[in-house]
Amino acid sequence: MSRVDPSAALITPNAENRYEVTRADLPLSCPMPGMHLWNSHPRVYLPIEASGEAKCPYCGAMYVLKGEHSHAA
Fold first, then answer.
1. What integer pLDDT is reported at residue 35 of this predicted model?
2. CA atoms in the 13 A half-sphere facing the CB of 73
3. Residues ≥6 apart with Cβ < 8 Å to 3
4. What pLDDT shows up at residue 48?
5. Could you tell me which of 25, 28, 18, 10 has the C-alpha nearest to residue 60?
6. Residues in CB range of 54: below 8 A, 6 or more apart
7. Alpha-carbon Rg for the chain in angstroms
8. Which residues of the chain, if any, have pLDDT below 70?
9. CA–CA separation, 65 and 4 (whole Å)
10. 8 Å CB contact between 2 and 46
11. String of b and e for 21-36 (b: at least 16 CB within 10 Å)?
12. H or E stretch at 29
């Protein structure tokens, strides 16, 4: 019997500079809920709804809202 590592599905935080998110990801936080937290900065919520883009003040990751703000991507 093989065991699946539950952490294998988690995203490595701060591994990318740009993340595309959808309305399903709101409210947006960095690191996102699906990311490892042990090696990341404190969670901060980012206001992305108005402009379609938000930059994390801790790690500099850029988040782009897909969908109605597709011009921002």
1. 83
2. 12
3. none
4. 97
5. 18
6. 28, 46, 47, 48, 62, 63
7. 14
8. 1-9, 11-16, 68-73
9. 32
10. no
11. beeebeebebbbeebe
12. strand 29-30
Whole-model pTM: value is 0.70
| Amino acid sitting at position 19 | Y
Please state the length of the chain. 73
CA 35 to chain centre: 8
SS3 14: coil
Cα 58 off chain centre by: 13
| Tokens representing residue 12 in the block | 């490595």
Give the β-pairing of 53-55 and 62-65.
Answer: antiparallel
Half-sphere exposure of 15 toward its Cβ, with a 13 Å CA cutoff? 9
Contact 60, 44 (CB under 8 A): no
Q: Closest Cα partner for 14 from 25, 30, 27?
A: 30
